[in-house]
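Why does this matter for the project? Reviewers at the last site visit asked to see concrete outputs rather than summary tables. In response, this paragraph embeds two records directly. Each consists of the residue sequence and, immediately after it, the corresponding structure tokens. Nothing has been edited or filtered.
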Amino acid sequence: MSRIAKIKFKDGVVHILDISGQGSSNEIETTHRIFTEPHPDFKNAMSALVEHVRTILEWPVSYAIGAIRIGGVSFSMSEDSGVEGAVISGLVDLKTSQSPFTFNTPHLPFDQYNEGGTAPVMPDDAIEALEELRREARAFLKGKRTQGDLFATDADQPAPAH
């Protein structure tokens, strides 16, 4: 089984790092760079992370409304405990500069590394949003694009509107 370790969307290009055989002696990393426009569901899954970033970074709800863009997510997996975690990266367009402010959230595990641990963890709703992004990334790799699913059969396609 493979696991998506990184998802990035920049300048219209989707980058996805997929790892298969993690922890085995034959781990394989595959980097996908796809230049076709992703489906709106993929873009929406990326944008949905903005509110979680606000929470994680303790930004006020009113901060930079409409100016925060998510650029990517890096997922990690602890070899010892098998606990997954993530870092969310993005940009904030600033009125005071031609260059955006770039940010990375702190790495937050999805669960405690040790039983009884009390370290901060990724909020549950953020984990759900990250899983949705990963589902959309997998669908993108299977052909789900703006113009429709490249590999769907006629039965999978919606009926044309008249």
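We now turn to the second protein, recorded in exactly the same manner.
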Amino acid sequence: MVVLAIWMGIHTASLVLERKSPEIALQLNSKNGKAIGRLALQDFSSRVAEGATPEAAALAVAPMARQALGHEPLQPSAHAILALAAKSREERKRILEQALKLNRRSATLLGTSLQEELADENLEGVIATLDIILRVHPEMSKEFFPVLAGALADDQSLPVFEQVLASRPPWQDSFLTTASGVPAAVINVAELRRRVSIESENLDALLVSRLAAAGEWEAAQAHYDFLEKRFPRSTDPALRSDFPPIDWRLADSREKRAQLSRDGAAIELFVRAGSGGIVMERIFPAKKSRVLVKITHDIQPSAQLENVRLQAKCAGEGQLLMAQNFAEQSGTASFEVPASTCDFVNLAIYARVPSVSPALRGSILSFKAE
């Protein structure tokens, strides 16, 4: 099924790339080898679309492919069709090897070569061939990025990918962004990203977020630690929101919002009357059986502190470990979070303002969890 899907993608794209009408070209010149080759490719693709195997379709149109080569020896589609129609895999590889020496831009030829690499389970060959295809035909990334992402899920592929990406192919960053959305591949995407240079400003934030979304908390923390060392930041670590959920995930709506102050010294809060919910949350590693949290704030009006609370749960789970409001904390709130069964704890500040009360405003001046 994977090979067939690849073939359908290759030949659909090939037909789009061939903008000329082979029928009209043949009417003008019956010996037009390029037109005959394109017509053979159309016939081949139609047969595959109707359910024929690539090999059976190639055998059916092989006479037309030979005719095309008789008039145009360099016609790549015809070479690809004859390779698929070959009686043995040795003959197929010989035809492909010779044809690729003449043309390394043909999607059809490259696709046929890719099929052979897949059949041989040659991971290095698959990735190298896909690299060529994506350099020559970047518009085909939609068809082939899923294939590459599937390959990257295999730990053994990392050295091969590292070698290919060392040359900074133009498809690198968009592929890593796409592959980071594949749960089976996201850990290796992060590992690969740490080995290569990138230009995408959003990829690292996506990786931290998607690793966490996949429940890979340790991997998310490891990538975050890498970013901390590689790209030092001047903002107070307790107030950062660049890489949530290891950094803060801040609410951002008309009803409630949290944002870093202009001087970077606090996180400003606002909750409109009649609204509520989580205004800020992040994940912490639970290094001890109990997590001590200390919060300094200036939330007003103070009468609403009973409507503001710190809540905690094991990361990725719904059951609360604790929920305690800010009332009677005298500006500094200290909480103990039982975390004996958690490797990582989700800590969140929740606020709700009654509809008859003034809007809640204030700042989180410091936040420490240990």
